[in-house]
Amino acid sequence: MWQNQSRAQALLRQLSELRETASRWKEVEQKTGSLLELAAESIRSADYSLEPEIRDEAGKLAARVEDIERSLVFSGKYDSRNAILNIHAGAGGTESQDWAQMLLRMYLRWAERKGFQAEVLETSPGEEAGVKSATVLITGDHAYGRLYAEHGVHRLVRLSPYDSDHARHTSFALAEVLPEAEKDVDIKVNPEDLKVETFRASGPGGQHMQKTSTAVRMTHLPTGLVVSYQSERSQYQNKDIALRILEARLLEMELSKKAEEMAKLKGERVEMGWGNQIRSYVLHPYKMVKDHRTGYETSNTTAVLDGEIDDFIDAYLHYKVGKEKVKEPI
Questions:
Q1: Sign of the torsion angle spanned by Cα atoms 155, 159, 162, 167
Q2: SS3 89
Q3: Class of residue 130 by CB neighbours under 10 A (exposed 0-12, middle 13-18, buried 19+)
Q4: What is this structure's pTM?
Q5: pLDDT tens figures, 269-303
Q6: Residues in a beta bridge with 179
Q7: Could you report how far apart the first and last alpha carbons of the chain are, in Å?
Q8: Residue 58 and residue 53: Cα distance in Å, rounded?
Q9: What is the per-residue pLDDT across 39-74, written as a single tens digit (0 to 9) for each?
Q10: What whole-number distance in Å separates Cα of residue 119 and Cα of residue 136?
């Protein structure tokens, strides 16, 4: 504990969360016991004057239990973490790159609505419009636990603004959601396993960025993972952020490996990456956004693309809890 402050802070935070959870259930247990004793005494003495009070307290207790059960949707080990969101345009050039830009805006607006902090760490602009990829750090209460519902392929159907014939086009973009790794706790990266290269930043950013080697390319030799970052003016800052993104990707690789192993034991088929289409956004010939996992849908496409996606997230979280309860009863 004394030798590793990062791990100590993580353990203390975990201990605090566990104590809070235990305290809630102990409170329910205590109130249930008191209420049962009061009801039993009322029956023994044939004094039913307390029945309205008992019913009222029982209703409050039931509501409290329901509130605690609702928190089960955030029972994952990393649900309370900040989230690193990566958006990648699919095949299709300008169409998919514009769609990736629309998704980026949707998530930034969602974070703003939730009161979360969203920091765009990196963007790779498209040739004509949109973005090829973008990385965003979203900081807030259970940011990863909420945003994981968005992990997968998003499909857009619309009349193309880039087609002179205004033909209908289908575009795809991938949203990757990673939990922010805690340094020296989740993932320990050996400095000897890193190959760090510096180069001059490209694109806008002022003379300083383009005349000095502030951009960083970091390669994790054991896995071959490569992370590049160039948005900050300082090479030190770019190295720090690149390492944070690399640690998140290494943690995600570890989680994916465990998920695949569990799926094999259960005989399930797991689709990763581009094979996992989760939601369709249809803007023509009708308006509809539909989640293919939960079946939840809405015709208010404008609101959804403006960041109102909480209904989709809530539907997925409850679907996930229900699914897990069926497979692994508590």
A1: positive
A2: strand
A3: buried
A4: 0.70
A5: 444 456 678 999 999 999 999 999 999 999 999 99
A6: 83
A7: 33
A8: 8
A9: 998 888 888 888 888 899 999 898 888 777 766 788
A10: 6
